[in-house]
Amino acid sequence: MEKLERVMYVEDDPDIRDIASMALELVGGLTLKACESGQQALNEVEAFAPQMFLLDVMMPGMDGPTTLLELRRQGYITASTAVAFMTAKVHPEEVVRYKEIGATDVIAKPFDPMTLADDVRAIWKAFNG
Amino acid sequence: MDDSRNTHALSARLEKLSEAYLTRLTLEFERLVEIAGQLANEPRCLEALQQLNSALHSLAGSAGTFGFVQLGRQAREQEQQVAKVLEQPSNDKQPLPVSEWIAQLQSALETDKSQKAAMGIETSRVENINGAPCIWLIERDAMLAEYMVQQLHSFGFQVRHFSDAKELDQDKTTTPDVLLIDHRATQQESLKINPVAFWQERLKDLTCPILFTGTEESFTARLHALRSGGSNYFVKPLDMIKLASYVAQLIKTKDTVPERVMVIENDVELAHHLQGVLEAANMQVMVLDHPGMLFEAINDFNPELILMDLWLQDVTGPELAALLGQMERWSQLPVIYLSGESNAELRGQALLKGGDAFLEKPIDSNLLINLCRSRVKRLRNLEHTKNRDGLTGLLKHASIKEALQDQWQLTQRKAQTFCVVMLDIDHFKKVNDTHGHAVGDLVIAAVGTLLRQRFRSTDKLGRYGGEEFALVMIDCTSDNALRMVNSLREDFAAIQFTGGGKQFACTLSAGVVDNQHFPDDTAEALLNRADRALYQAKNSGRNRVCLAAN
Question: Which SUPFAM superfamilies is this protein grouped with (chain B) (predicted)?
Fold first, then answer.
């Protein structure tokens, strides 16, 4: 299994972006590219070449699901790219819907900053397992 | 940097971020106040409602991460209510009490500030509700786990969540009342090789009932769960209301009363041997020496099963069985013959006249105990369905009225405070009209489960009709009754139902009366007072509990 290093993270809320970045970089030792919008992600994805995407679901303009579809259409999400949504919606039916459009897994918000990186790595491991 | 210094630096940074977030919260509250002002002028303004929804959504998703757990929860509840209103046709939109909500959010924030120690969300709220049954949940999907914890909590269970089966080893000192496991809930390799062996090994020290969950509905999945030690298997997506009801029943049946068995046997020594065996298995046993006294003895002892010899003095076993069959009260009573008779034809004839099974002498003790248990269990289930409402498991209309009458009569002889509660689901007709009767039935069943779960086994709980419930709370003051019914009301409002792919919640209203304030009232009059208090609760806005006034 390829080791998980490069993660692209899209979140419009600056506070959440800060704390998640810290959790993933400092606690998790990942190389992170944090973007404030789906558009920024589309602009920077080529140069960064992430192994995994973390997408907030509800964002103004381009939401998480749309970002995913667009990334896939442009060829940046392949069979070896993992995608996790982050959302505050807790209903299992929502999870099923996200998985149907291609999400590997879903991370519940609010997340625990101390274990976020573990969750991300666990999703990566399950995805490659 | 060594680990502890690292952690220390980290928590310092986390603390800083959390302080920064607190500043932002001030701005968010200002924004909410602004939106509240807008909605006060124009309660149906779509734009303001959408802004409110998005502000609450952002709070719900972020507050917990920064350690403001209560605030996040509160915001989520409110977000769900706004979402509901957004779905209503624009002319019918209910005005929302936004100013009241802001006050609730502020008080939640204060609670968080005072309790804030650790960061992050606690999925397993270890609020120790005194004596509440404890479920251990092993589930990898954090989101589903949170949902399940919240729902099970609403039904009055304590829940401890583990995300991997290997964490079970951490705590060997306590045991749960029920274990609920996703059948794939571990990262360990041995699960993939032989799941049954893996779970058998993992669960071998646990004595509580074990339930498995999984996404596959297949013979193999169920068989694997069974062989792994599970007493049932629930398919995902989980129906939490059914699951909670099942767990509640599972826990309740653990502390049942002993089975009552009557033995009619010529051979006195054998009779006393049987008595010893059954009593050792915690059953109550009466030995009847003279079959002629059967009718007196049976009314006195009220047995749930009869064990008798095929040949007695002056009368045969099948004759006695036939006599019992003629009396309505005893016609369902199970009868097991004890006999050395190995002639199949004779046995067949005996069974035709009455009686359910044969036990051959010499009698195997284990077989005897198991047979008695299973027959009594079946009889109890039958009684249960006769007096209890099938949907809720509560007493039927006539039985709850009878229970109230009994209690009232008892207090005429011996002073005791009790309360009568009438309870009704708010806007239930709308649930049926919008989501159909099947979903409506689920809502009613949820009230039943919640009642059985939250109230004491001495309280009398009944489904009075439709969506209306009546309770008799024994040895209980009106203060206590109000507190308990209010907590039930809050728990019920927190349950998420699903209808036509959409989530919704329901509320209930209740009226409470106690016998102390109305010593001259009959049982019927108390019930009427509770009913009037219920209507007062309905008329003053629903989702509340009213006490009958003097």
Answer: CheY-like (SSF52172), Histidine-containing phosphotransfer domain, HPT domain (SSF47226), Nucleotide cyclase (SSF55073)
CA atoms within 13 A on the CB side of B161: 20
Asked if B8 reaches chain A (Cβ–Cβ under 8 Å), the answer is no
A114 CB burial (10 A radius; 0-12, 13-18, 19+): middle
B64:A110 CB<8 A: yes
Chain B residue numbers touching A96 (CB-CB < 8 A) = 237
Domains of chain B, start order: 3-115 (1.20.120.160), 134-254 (3.40.50.2300), 261-360 (3.40.50.2300), 397-547 (3.30.70.270)
Q: Is B19 a catalytic residue?
A: no
Whether residue A62 contacts residue A39, with contact meaning beta carbons closer than 8 Å, is answered with yes
Chain segment B49-99, per-residue pLDDT in tens: 999 988 898 888 888 877 788 898 889 889 888 988 888 887 778 888 898
Classify the C-alpha dihedral B377-B380-B385-B391 as positive or negative. Answer: negative
**Residue from B79, B139, B259, B467 carrying the catalytic annotation:** B467
What are the φ and ψ backbone dihedral angles of B230, each rounded to 5 degrees? -85, 140
Q: How far apart are CA B505 and CA B482, in angstroms?
A: 22
Query: For chain A, which domains are there?
Result: 6-124 (3.40.50.2300)
A111/B65 CB distance under 8 A: yes
CB spacing of A26 vs B21 below 8 angstroms: no
Select from B248, B251, B244, B57 the least CA-distant residue to B149. Answer: B244
Q: Full-prediction pTM beyond 0.90?
A: no
